[in-house]
Design goal:
Helix content of chain B: under 10%
Distance between the termini of chain A: 33 Å
Low-confidence stretches of chain A: none
Order of helices and strands of chain A: EEEEEEEEEEE
Mean pLDDT of chain A: 91
Largest sheet of chain B: 6 strands, mixed
Mean pLDDT of chain B: 90
Order of helices and strands of chain B: EEEEEEEEEEEE
Number of strands of chain B: 12
Radius of gyration of chain B: 13 Å
Strand content of chain B: over 45%
Number of strands of chain A: 11
Largest sheet of chain A: 7 strands, mixed
Number of helices of chain B: 0
Shape of chain A: globular
Oligomer: heterodimer
Number of helices of chain A: 0
């Protein structure tokens, strides 16, 4: 399967711990996005990369959130000092940036539960 | 800034009857518009997209949507509902060529199919 993959699929952590999620995009895609989805809501855009450059990060929810894509392939999203309000589904998507308009392909998500 | 309003949080139809899911958008640009579907415990799947070509867009599984600029609408329809269509549907807007805001999702419409 050559779709977007995310690891882990589920994460349970205690408040105050740090967590890191990984996303592997479709191999030829140069853009990678992170979203958060809370219960009963649509996904909320957090940040995105074009190759290894993070082109938008002002929408990250707080300075506890950070993302990297060091070699322009996989990406990680880290949440430091987790809070109960961070419990959500974290989605990754990738796309091929071209003039036709963007079609983003989503991974299955990582469900985070903060206890 | 861009936004999406899905006019119904829940829609219930009988199997074999038409489906209409309503969406209005707001954008400062000529946007790209999408409908995504999310089945329980599965990732988001693209149903169809509009990117300034034909205003009537056909998607997968018999769905289609019509872009009406004068009404700022992009409603999703299907002539005959199937039980497998039961899912959450998201209307999504994007700036041309993706822009810096990623995708903006509506809050979703939960489609219920009655046997």
């Amino acid at each position: 399967d050559t779709g977007v993959s995310q690891d882990p699929r589920h994460k349970i952590t205690k408040r105050g711990q740090n967590v890191t999620f990984r996303c592997d995009p479709i191999s030829e895609h140069n853009r990678l996005y992170w979203y958060r989805q809370t219960l009963g809501q649509g996904p909320e855009f957090l940040t995105y990369f074009q190759n290894e450059a993070q082109l938008e990060k002002s929408r990250l929810l707080s300075d506890r959130f950070s993302a990297e894509r060091p070699k322009g392939s996989f990406s990680t999203l880290e949440i430091q000092r987790t809070e109960q309000g961070d419990s959500a589904m974290y989605l990754c998507a990738s796309s091929l940036f071209d003039v036709q308009g963007l079609e983003q392909y989503f991974g299955p998500g990582t469900r985070l539960t903060v206890t | 800034a861009q936004s999406v309003t899905q006019l119904d949080s829940h829609v219930s139809v009988s199997e074999g009857t038409p489906v209409l899911l309503r969406c209005n958008y707001s954008s400062s640009y000529s946007p790209s518009l999408f409908w995504y579907v999310q089945h329980p415990n599965k990732g988001l799947q693209l149903l169809l997209k509009y990117t300034s070509a034909a205003t009537l867009v056909k998607g997968i599984n018999g769905f289609e949507a019509e872009f009406k600029k004068s009404e700022t609408s992009f409603h999703l329809t299907k002539p005959s509902a199937h039980m497998s269509d039961a899912a959450e549907y998201f209307c999504v807007v994007s700036e041309p060529r993706g822009g810096a805001d990623g995708l903006t999702f509506g809050k979703g419409t939960h489609l219920i199919i009655q046997p």
